[in-house]
Amino acid sequence: HWGKGYATEGGRAALDYAFTTLKLDEVVALTAASNIPSQRVMQRLDMTHDPNDDFDHPHALGTSLQRCVLYRSHP
Question: Which end of the chain has the least Cβ crowding within 10 Å, N or C?
Fold first, then answer.
């Protein structure tokens, strides 16, 4: 089911629910820096990435999952 837009569609629904129903001020998402497809989904959702928010996951040190990137969305 890869490449059919399901992640983006689900992400849009989740953001809509978070901002409309739950009235949240912010939604934060993260993924491994090596997970480019997930980063592309976040970008398609118009989430913003500030490299200053990126961090090394303490339970993944020394692996390809160590570096994490963080994206934010606001209503």
Answer: N
